[in-house]
Write the structure tokens for this entry.
Amino acid sequence: MEPLRVENVTVVLNGQEVIKDVSFSIKREGLYVIVGPNGGGKTTLVRTIMNLLKPSSGSIYIFDQPNHEYLQRNIVGYLPQRSSFRRFFPIRVYDVVKMGLRERKDKKDLILTALEKVGMRQFSQANFSTLSGGQQQRVLIARAIVSHPKLLVLDEPVTGLDYESQNEFYLLIKSFVEDGTTVLMVTHDVGFAMDFSDQIFCINRTLVCHVSAQEKFSMDSFLVKLYGYGVKPLTHRHGEGE
Amino acid sequence: MTGLFEIYQRSLLAGILTAISTAIMGVHVVFRRMAFFGDAIAHVAFAAAAIGVILGFSSFFSAVILSVLVSLLLGKLSRRSVSEDAAIGVLFSLTMAVGIVLFSVAKKQRSLTSYLFGDILTVTKIDLLYLSIVTGIVILFNISFRDALVHFTFDEDFTKLMRPKIDVVYQLFLAILAVSVVVGVRTVGVILVSAFLIIPASTAVMSSNDYRLAFIFAPLFSSISVILGLFLSLAIDAPPGALTVLIQGAIFFTTLFVRR
């Protein structure tokens, strides 16, 4: 079964075509990355995959079922963009993770295990808003994995995190992939995408490139494909005049 | 003839029921940052009551129907690109003007004042029945959907994913909010009902690390304010609604400074 198949998806928002005729598929488990410029439609695509937006044309299949049908019966782990939730809200870490379960019954062991996996078990009773940005992201990852989903969709999970938190976060993601979870991640970190992902999908309104790990490519040619220009290293020489 | 004690007993009960229903709904209102929403609904209720008076309908039921409709419409507006605060601002002034004109044309100056400032000392057994039903509905709604609605406020996308029917719960919330505001208008008036909605809830949210506590503290703070307000009104012969709001304000500022 293919974890994800996107077929000719076009999304129109407020009369504007945000993404146009995008098709790609994820054929087996692994780490897959979506990159692209701001406003290129990455988040729109992810929200459409998660059935939060309806495509004006095209179809999406998760494990060979139409996405809306699959999502009704199963859970896909989802980490929305950081701007989508209220950072300052009187809610306990435990309750945030509990949101990731559909059953109303309190499954304490599942919640604590998920927190354990992300190294946040000792904070289970803490107020979510008192945590740092990196810790909050870890809690939201615990929420995404608490129901043991086979597919995990992460929308810019490291944006706003410091270097150390980013690295910790990437290690966490890699551990999920090693455990057999398929991860689809939106990021601006092209370096990470090139080093660690199985495939990269470049979205700028439409699918502009599709690069697999086996292909040989240079960062420069990749960025030319994605942004339309290459890398121009910035240099700073000490001692030179203005 | 109704004795003074019975009047105060009935007023106290009406005040506490209003305090409970508005404060519980108020916590959601404060969480969702829609404080003006309650004000707008109160003003719609005022205009609707005036229409009811002119046409000879029950002013209560016309207010309930129109307020629920407008509340759902505002809820829809807030999900589109139309600016919600601008829509509320327009509605707010227009409905106030409609109400004042209609009450004046109908020569019901007394009704006008009682809708603006409420009249907790003249609540009837029927008013008490409505208040009890609405308070019961508010409590039942919160027992069933409090967590879902709080989660929806905290993270809309994720909650939609986990609970595809959450929009229905939100519409239900708007309708119940409208009805509780309309019922509150009868006891504390258009001007002060938003204070009942916002002040105790803000105080409770400020003093709670866990949202569940806010839903306990808010009705508690509001009920204490009503009891003190009514007794103070007996002592100094001032309007109980306004005194209650002053006490709510005192609790709010005390909590604010104690917290700092």
In short: The two ends of chain A are 60 Å apart (CA to CA). The interface with chain B takes residues 14, 47, 50-52, 71-72, 75-76, 78, 80, 84-86, 89-92, 95-96, 99-100, 102, 127, 143 of chain A (CB under 8 Å).
